[in-house]
Specification:
Layout (H helix, E strand, L loop, with lengths): L1 H21 L3 E8 L11 E7 L6 E8 L5 H8 L4 E10 L6 H11 L4 H13 L4 H10 L5 E2 L6 H12 L3 E3 L1
Parallel strand pairs: 1-6
Antiparallel strand pairs: 1-2, 2-3, 3-4, 4-5
Length: 172
Amino acid sequence: MYMNSLFQFYRILLFLFFISSNQSQITFRILQSSALHFVPSLKLHHIVLLSDKPETYVYTLDFTPINQTYKSNLLKMLFAHNIPAEIRLRFIKTNIENTENIIQQWDNANKINEQLSYQLSRNTYNKITNKQIKSIVNKSLQWRPYMNLYTHNCQHFSDYVKNISRQFVGNN
């Protein structure tokens, strides 16, 4: 009887170890980047970084105006108008702590028009294999697709994603 109990105890212990070893922790980081390319030192734009293998790659999420180079959109935002915006999802092969490399690859990936940007986000989404990251992204995509400089901007979006991510994140 003692051996049977001991055997059951080790089976339970092994099962718990197996469950805990298969639970991937998500690393979360908010990266501040330039909001305006002609003033790179003004780091007001927030980019959310998510990874289950932070030494290898990151998924980036950010919230930005559509057609942000249009001066009329920038003026509308300054006067508290809502303008159309998008959530961009990108995949970048680099360490999550390599800020310069992330910014450079992220900038290069976003030199495309709205339609191509949407398609790139969709393709990136379809390639996510981690269920936790996919869940965070799914919930993030429910963010309303308009931007207002004062009440609904990229910094508000990063806070929203951070709150969604709390249950999955290993280091916050």
